[in-house]
Amino acid sequence: MNAVIVTGASRGLGAAIAEQFMDRGFAVITVARRENEPLKQKAQKLKLSYAHLTCDLSQFDGQQDLTRQLKPTLDKMGDLEALYVVNNAGVVEPVERVGKMSPLEMKRLIDINVLAPMVLTNHLVQLFPTTPLMIVNVTSGAAQHARHGWSAYSSSKAALNVFTETAALESKATGAPHTFIAYNPGIMDTDMQGVIRSSDSQAFQDVERFQEFKEKGMLRSPERVARALVSLVLDNRDIKNGQIYDVNDLLKGNA
């Protein structure tokens, strides 16, 4: 059995990724505070193994609860041949200047964007030392450069990139059958983009530019971005361990 775990799968990119894996016949475990009912119904229609784990990844107890539930859930699905994991859950708030941010919002962002994928990845590497793992950490182009109002978000994605690269380096050294990559999905038509567009211009100087992306139809659909990712990890025989992949490169010539 091939299985995938997708965090933040209640909507947007996470839901689209889970659906794409279903179309490839994978057993699917979704992780979010709320279950996506259409995904559940699709799994039933396709007669695929499916489970939803309700977790609040902004809480350490929720992260620990997730790790406790995974092995029993996977065991019920059958003998595992390979496990794919997409650490997709993420938040952009606080969108604010340094000196104006809420410490509680900063902590929540780091817990979801950085600590949750680190905890989950660490647990799975311990749990499956000889099972092929493909860990995909959803990152952002914001990790590569400073952007006004995004100090917390950009820093969290930069941290996730280094974690990805380091985990890959270590797996190569030990010879473990584990692959770690990061995936930049670019700009999509999701709820997160709605949050960005509603930001105050003093907190986020580029707000008008992001509003223009929506007005001019420049946002890709989550479904298209998800297809590019799933094709990358399932159809590409030359995946580079530790690589940060960009959807724009994958869709080049097919924008």
UniProtKB/TrEMBL annotation:
Q: Which SUPFAM superfamilies match?
A: NAD(P)-binding Rossmann-fold domains (SSF51735)
This entry's Gene Ontology molecular function terms read: sepiapterin reductase (NADP+) activity
Q: Which InterPro entries match?
A: Biopterin_syn/organic_redct, NAD(P)-bd_dom_sf, Sc_DH/Rdtase_CS, SDR_fam
Which GO BP terms apply? tetrahydrobiopterin biosynthetic process
Is Repressor set as a keyword in this record? no
Gene Ontology cellular component terms for the protein in this record: cytoplasm
Keyword annotations for this protein, in alphabetical order, are: Cytoplasm, NADP, Oxidoreductase
What is any Pfam family matched here? adh_short
According to its UniProt record, which protein family does this protein belong to?
A: Belongs to the short-chain dehydrogenases/reductases (SDR) family.
- Identify this protein by name: Benzil reductase ((S)-benzoin forming)
The species is Pullulanibacillus camelliae
Organism taxonomic ancestry: Bacteria, Bacillati, Bacillota, Bacilli, Bacillales
This protein's gene is called: yueD
